[in-house]
Write a structure and sequence with these properties.
The chain is α+β, with helices and mostly antiparallel strands. The chain contains 9 helices and 16 strands. Helices cover 25% and strands 31% of the residues.
Length: 320
């Protein structure tokens, strides 16, 4: 019996001195990269794993990995996450801890990154549902985001788009996935109107350019101009401009475009036509909640009460 106990203790001691059996041995799924890290500090191990992921995507990591002790609830250090920039411009937003272990005063960790397109990622969340074609919002069905989803999923589903804690999500029933900036911009599309037309003074803009509108209408009435940025925030530029055939706005004051000079950003203009002046109360109820709880569908429903058009433009990087 003593010999048996000693043998067990020896085996246990010998195993504890080794790396975890999963370390550099996890199976890799399609469109997945797994990075491994080991260090005496958990934050250092995470940073090493993320750096390994970045090096797989691109051999050039342009920014230094800033290690910070504060981590989010899911264990991902946001300051480190934001500091990872690779020459391919792929952001490591979807990081998942696959395994972690603390052995002999050292942390071992495996972090995965799914670089699948958004529609493919979302399809993976739908495996447990019995899917049937559903009615989609007419505007959303014409956007690139929904066209891609409909193609990949092979069903037209009644997706919801909502904002939580300053981040936009697309959801279906109990499944949701964060929309990156480019994904959200894929919700911008051109929608024509049978009554009004819009021209901007430029096709594209750089920060500090002037922005002006040339609106024509087949009917007398009123037009109101709204904008939406790539962060999803929406605002009123001007309401209830009287129009007969054509109107330029602004005529005196300037509208100055402001954006990050180092990034390309899309924005969308919405012009509403109405025979009478519109009531902004419903719109104000939506925009007061735009930072936290706005339902994108609620906003579209507001526009759908009127004849409206949408126009997509871009603020491009400043030429240096």
């Amino acid at each position: 019996m003593k010999h048996l106990i000693l043998t067990i203790l020896f085996i246990s001691f010998g195993f504890s001195s080794q790396n975890p059996i999963w370390f550099y041995n996890l199976p890799t799924l399609e469109n997945q990269i797994i990075g491994y890290g080991e260090a005496t500090k958990l934050s250092d191990a995470k940073a090493e794993a993320k750096n390994e992921i970045a090096s797989v995507i691109s051999t050039k990591v342009e920014s230094y990995l800033k290690i910070d002790k504060v981590t989010t609830k899911d264990g991902i250090d946001k300051r480190v996450e934001k500091s990872i920039k690779v020459s391919t411009n792929i952001k490591l937003e979807e990081l998942h801890i696959e395994e972690s272990a603390f052995i002999n005063d050292k942390w071992y960790i495996a972090i995965s990154y799914d670089y699948s397109p958004f529609a493919v990622k979302f399809k993976k969340l739908l495996g447990g549902y019995n899917l049937e074609n559903q009615q989609q919002n007419n505007y959303l069905a014409k956007t690139n985001l929904f066209k891609n989803l409909n193609t990949i999923v092979s069903k037209r589903l009644d997706y919801k788009i909502h904002n939580k804690n300053n981040m936009w999500y697309l959801s279906y029933k109990n499944s949701s996935l964060k929309l990156g900036t480019k994904d959200f911009e894929n919700l911008f599309t051109f929608k024509n109107s049978s009554i009004i037309e819009l021209e901007l003074n430029q096709d594209t803009f750089v920060t500090n350019n002037d922005l002006s509108f040339n609106i024509s209408s087949k009917k007398e009435g009123y037009v109101s101009i709204f904008y939406m940025g790539s962060n999803g925030q929406i605002g009123l530029i001007k309401d209830n401009l009287s129009i007969t055939k054509n109107i330029m706005y602004p005529t005196s004051d300037k509208i100055i475009v402001k954006s990050d000079p180092n990034k390309d950003k899309k924005f969308m203009i919405v012009v509403i036509y109405s025979t009478n002046k519109i009531d902004l109360n419903d719109f104000e109820k939506i925009t007061k909640q735009k930072i936290r709880n706005t339902n994108f569908i609620d906003m579209l429903n507001y526009f759908n009460k009127y004849e409206y058009l949408t126009y997509v433009s871009k603020v491009v990087k400043s030429q240096r």
